[in-house]
Amino acid sequence: MTVKPLEHLQFERLNPLEIDQVLQQNSLVYIPLGAFEWHGLHLPVGLDSLTSHGICLRAADKTGGLVMPPFYYGMSGSIWHHPHTILIEDEEIFLKILKTTLTRLETIGIKKVVIFTGHFSLKQLEALITLKKDWLSIQNSLELSIFSISDCPTVKIEADHGAIFETSVLAEIDPNLVKLENLPPIDTYPANDPDGNSKGDHRRDPNNILFGIFGDDPRHYDKLTGKVIVNKIVDWLIQSI
Ligand SMILES: [Zn+2]
Question: Region Disordered: start and end of each range (predicted)?
Fold first, then answer.
């Protein structure tokens, strides 16, 4: 399946002449945030960054502006110790990188930045609230908006971790990266969720079939759901900025 690469909107791939040409039309830069963490056997560890990058590119395709390369460093959550997971504990480090990026973008004359996070651990969302507050407290010419993939009001499926929501979103953005065949067949090995709770501590047990996946069984994935979710998020972003 071919996915529109939108490489001409990726800031890091452009030379100064190409950059100026795009930004003269709309002085807008998207910064996609994500994380590097276990999402189950069927998904890549960089999922949150891959999805936020893809969504920002689709939004920029409609609004104009450029998209920064996605951040793969995100703030810690309750699964920081899972395999193949690298998260930041110290909020100061995370904010320093973001503030430096904003300051430099402001210095080169960017008028508006949209931060869009595909990673929504509580610490990540709290850090972003602090960032917004800090940015507003200083005199600046760069307008900052911040959105989380978990906050889109028109998407009725709750954002999750490696489950049906995130699996569907990535399958729409980059279908080749979703390997549902890595999970055991659902008929033989159905999810074993006490009281139907798909986010309980039993999913933290490495022997659980859906280890490290929090939310409804991703093996119920269907193609249309991902398309609907991503379209709604892109529309919401465009309308909000
Ligand atoms: Zn995720």
Answer: 185-204
CA angle 196, 229, 49 (to 5 degrees): 90
Q: Report whether pLDDT(202) > 60.
A: yes
What local confidence, expressed as pLDDT, does residue 78 receive? Answer: 82
- Residue 186, pLDDT score: 94
Q: Is residue 240 in a domain?
A: no
Q: How far is the CA of 41 from the centre of ligand 1 (A)?
A: 13
Selection from 238, 232, 229 nearest residue 57 by Cα: 238
The residue behind tokens 């079939």 is: 209
Note whether 43 and 162 are within 8 A (CB): yes
**Domains contained in the chain, number:** 1
CA of 16 to the centre of ligand 1 (A): 33
Assess if residue 167 is contained within a domain.
yes
